[in-house]
Amino acid sequence: MDNRKFLPVIVIGVIALVVVIALSSSIFYTIQAGEKAVIFKKFGGGLDKENIIGQGFGFKAPWNDLHVYDVRETSTEEQMDVLDKNGLSINVDVTVRFHPIYLSVGYLHENFGQDYVNRLVVPEVRSAVRQVMGRYSAEEIYSTKRGEVESGIKAETEKTLGDNYIQMKTLLIRSINLPEQIKLAIENKLKQEQEALAYQFRLEKEKSEAERKRIAAEGEARANQIINSSLTNNLLKMRGIEATTSLANSPNSKVVVIGSGGDGLPLILGNN
């Protein structure tokens, strides 16, 4: 049997195998956990935004490009100088946590590419911080309305990023730094306000105590007035007689002298 007739087939097979091995990195791919991918088909309609590739092994035509995105939650920290509504410079340190919306990776790639953090997230966070803080004074940002400022920045950033295929998880203002002179002035003002409130509280408390004493005194005076108006001579004599009778019946030794003065009340002398 002449095996030479199979030689061309063998050569073609070896060449094909070499080509496959050489192009294996362009044909086969593996998407890791926490990743999504989209394919750009050079000869088949361009970027396939609708079919998002999940984790696992796959293959593609060697002339198509695979774009892999890490869709796990990540964060970026930004330190910036912003102006309050009076033009005062404030240094702010912000952290934002986010991840791409899984099924919108194709649109994210089309609009911003894989450098979306620097092209989209960072500029939008900076813009939201500047816009919101520009509505408040340094004192409000530093003390009384810090929570309101933080909520406003979160709301604006979340909406903008959400409209551009990014899910924001949270935004934190880690620190707000003012010029030392302004900071001391605000702290002194807040201290004075607290002292004024404490003084006002003491005044109100003293007024309330004085009112309580006045009402108690008026009540006591009214009670004495009622008692005095009811104490007649006959009533006093009757009470004296009742007391004398009660004492006379008690086992204690005593001397009872029946009074003959103007009130007629008895004088009681006893050992106990």
TrEMBL record:
It is a single-pass membrane protein. Gene3D superfamilies: Band 7 domain (3.30.479.30). CDD domains: SPFH_prohibitin. It is found in: Membrane. Keywords: Membrane, Transmembrane, Transmembrane helix. The chain crosses the membrane at residues 6-31. This is Prohibitin family protein. It comes from Splendidivirga corallicola.
